[in-house]
Amino acid sequence: MTLRTKMNETVEPERYELLKELPVLFESDRRSFFKFLGTGLLVICSAAKTTAWQESGGARRRGGQELPQEIDAWLHIGEKSKITAFTGKVEVGQNIRTSLTQAVAEELHVPVGSIELVMGDTKLVPYDMGTFGSLTTPVMNLQLRRVSGAARDALIAMAAKQWNVDAARLAATDGKVVDAQAKRSATYSELVKGQQITQVLPAEDPLIPPSKWTVAGQTLAKVDGREFVTGRHQYPSDITRPGMLYGKVVRPSAFNATLLSADTKVAEAMPGVTVVRDGNFLGVAAAGSIEAEKAAAAIRAEWKVEPQSSSKELFEYLKTHQETPEPGDNYQFVSGDVAPVFAAADHKINSTYRINYIAHAPLETRAAVAEWSGDELTVWTGTQRPFGVRSELATAFHVPEEKVRVLMPDMGSGYGGKHTADAALEAARLARAAKKPVKIVWTREEEFTWAYFRPGGVIEISSAVGTDGKITAWEFHNYNSGTAGYRTYYDIPNQKIEFHPVDSPLRQGSYRGLAATANHFAREVHMDELAAAVKMDPLEFRLKNLNDERLRAVFEQGGKQFGWSKARAANHGFGVGGGFEKRGYVATFVEVALKPQTGEIKIQRVLTAFDCGAVVNPDGLRNQIVGANVMGIGGALFEAIEFQNGRIINNVFSKYRVPRFQDVPPIDTQLIDRKDKEPVGAGEAPIVGIAPAIANAIFAVTGERLRTLPMGPQLAAKGYLVS
Amino acid sequence: MPTYELRINGQPRSVEADPEASLLSVLREQLGLTGTKYGCGEAQCGACTVLIGGHAKRSCRTQVSMVAGKEITTIEGLAKGEKLHPVQQAFLDEGAMQCAFCTSGMIMSSVSLLNQNSHPSDKDILQSMEGNICRCGTYPRILAAIRRASSTAKEERP
Questions:
Q1: Which option is the CATH number for A321-356+453-722: 3.10.180.10, 3.40.50.1820, 3.30.365.10, 3.40.920.10?
Q2: Angle, alpha carbons A528-A630-A231 (nearest 5°)
């Protein structure tokens, strides 16, 4: 595997499993579709050209239909002017239900209100690896535009045939095919009436370029906003089924514990209680959540626990528990030769940066409802990977994947933290024993303890810079936190960059921006250290070492709007941090104010300039950028997981501080709308600039160089209070 | 199990419940009012906020036995038919949500604030809302929505 591939695909240990071979690609046959949706036109779009899948033997016979394997999206046009588009992507708060609806409306020429998106239901949607890596916009937006464009052309062709005219003289508009010459038109539903047509299209049609968009590119309010403000929307934790019980897992007393014994007699004697002990799994199901809690509390379990490391010695641990990379893994990038340059450098800097473990803490904890019908299992759960969850369930219960259906109602966020099937497995195990549907909703303590974390890390950087301000050598070692964003985008002739996997002390995984939050923090703080060493303005120094035109643009335009070149007020400092992540270009600027008498530091304002190609929904994008900055403030200043001997110490919101109303400064956004570029994702990249920008602004006003995330404890030790 | 006569969204509701059961679990599990959310169970996040006699209350730490006979309002009871409460409308108008799991609690806390103080300053709003977490970080828009509701709702509120 080449380094390039590794860099793109392998980011966190949690995601290694995503590289496994993909399971079945096509789920529902044509007949079940029409049964579900009614008659009409079903358009199936294959990104790979039709001939490609035919030649590769990719077509499989199923239900009498030959269908391609490389299916990305499908779309149904029904009789009642109803358009249903299907995608394996899921809505987790990133507003993708709305922006994908805009994509369909744009190409199909239909009103937004006539479109329904079916998302993340493994029985109905095409296979999808999951909603992560900011891939929904660059991949699914494009695919839904393709399938919609293909459907529009198919409808025009149907009308042309019906009217016996040349398709070239027909146009699609507002849900109709119009023949201006003959002054006639037909709605899409009239054209498909009474038919069951399946079209498999190669999607070679040219798409409407962003510069000509009329629906996409515009602000559109959340398509189902009313459902949320009225409390009607059903999240995974809100799902109920007839006869449903509530489950509760009896958790081990520490990580990696083994169940030695369990006295379940009292619990089993409680009315309506089912107790399950299966290996290390111990849980109950009862009529209500309080009954389940009481039954679980009545169980006396004994666990064998091994001594484990603690957060106090985290950074020593990470340096001393390196793993040997798997054969074929290459986490090293080298260009030029750093050693001779360091030996002869004008200025050489060595710095170490430390990153604590943090929690995603999505407001909706993990939740699942599981229901068995014979050997068929249906699970509603909050996950970013419905097909991954299906696969985990099928494996755990020894049933074929076709027997498992996972549905993912739009959920209460994830931030990369809901990739696994935990709650789904627990609910399914209890439901099988109780012979009734079972709901599991994790408590906040469970979410803080038994979910996985954004990895902690140690990052060591050595660099050399000439008195002219040109960086000549760059050596970067990341221990444990991950490879996302570990390469530098600055133009440096001699580089050695390496990721060192570690036998991690905690269960760790994906997070918003993955390791890019850590790698950008280290790199962008180090850039400030270098600028200080050669007595250059930090922004000017970055630009001196940067050729990439789009990254220069966010730094330059953001700096201009922020007023970087203006004089700082007394006891005010400016800081900047930015970079390139998940195909987006970001630069964040921060102003802080210091009260010298008290040591109080306040973030006065933030500005983020962002380029993610053509903007699909400006309002939704601004919401994401502001939200990413707010979330980033938590990791920058005060979020850190404390653990000891296999237990999480700060496992509640009263002990684990997340950003609240009063922590949030005014946050401005500057969108660089590149109509000449295809749109890319925006949920992750805007988080990477805020932490280094804050650190650099605090340095500007205090002279204190902060190299640990979160910065709050280090500041407090030096007599500062940051808010 | 004892029976409690509750008054929820103007309707009498009779429930049999464990006296220790939280109002939140009764709303969600027995009455099907799932608009009120579980976020933490320790009255730290505000997702479960309801109104008791017009005042914000964390339903996760309120035992059902304590609220019998009191006027309970949940997110489902705010709109008058199809007409949204001005605070709900303001949240829509400002796009003040992302995943929206906090939205019910945010709206109920905002309604409570405006019930007590129809013209809150920004400082009043921030202080009053400090107990509500939006993990997606939509705080600036929620602040804007409360400001908007405060200015538009004046004449509409009784």
A1: 3.30.365.10
A2: 165
